[in-house]
Design brief:
alpha/beta; 5 helices; DNA-binding
DNA sequence: CCAGGCTTGGAGG
DNA sequence: CCTCCAAGCCTGG
């Protein structure tokens, strides 16, 4: 069966998804709608409902490249939590800027929660718009939210 | 091959 | 506190 594409709403944005079964090929934020379905967990997540994104796979985590290892490390960050670029770099054994570059090119944001990776001194960056990162983090912080089924702790 | 990136920690004012 | 700067290193073009 072929790869499916579709989108769901998140605030003023649409989340475009290219996927097949539980494997996600591509996620991107855009202003316009893309007709078609998206995986239920992503739909629930965007709606602020309890969702388990870990049940989905991402092509970004496949392989043994540095970026794949970075994406896998990022996926271990729990919903509602955050780590710094430096933390991920230490885990993977690379430099913080390499982590930043990987986040900027993350082919599947949300599924690989790059919004949970922040700078040591502030929120860090986010393409295409920093406000999306702020909104995602705020939503995860809010209870009951998408983290409801994971929840607890991790806050300072 | 090489410039640049969603960084960081240290130095110096 | 704040600005400046180089180390560090993978990747797309």
């Amino acid at each position: 069966m072929a790869i499916v594409t579709g989108s769901c709403r998140f605030g003023l944005w649409y989340v475009h998804v290219a996927w097949q079964d539980d494997l996600i090929y591509r996620v991107r934020f855009a202003r316009v709608e893309l007709p078609g379905p998206v995986p239920e967990e992503i739909r629930r997540y965007c709606a602020g409902l309890p969702a388990d994104l870990t049940s989905l796979r991402s092509i970004a985590t496949e392989g043994d490249s540095t970026s794949a290892r970075i994406y896998r490390a990022v996926r271990t960050v729990p919903c509602g939590g955050t780590v710094t670029y430096g933390d991920i770099a230490r885990i993977v054994g690379t430099a913080p800027r390499v982590v930043g570059s990987a986040m900027a090119r993350n082919p599947t944001p949300i599924v690989v929660p790059c919004h949970r990776v922040v700078a040591k001194t502030g929120i860090g960056g986010f393409t295409p718009d920093l406000s999306i990162k702020e909104a995602l983090l705020a939503m995860e912080r809010r209870a009951p939210g998408p983290c409801a089924s994971e929840k607890r702790g991790i806050n300072r």
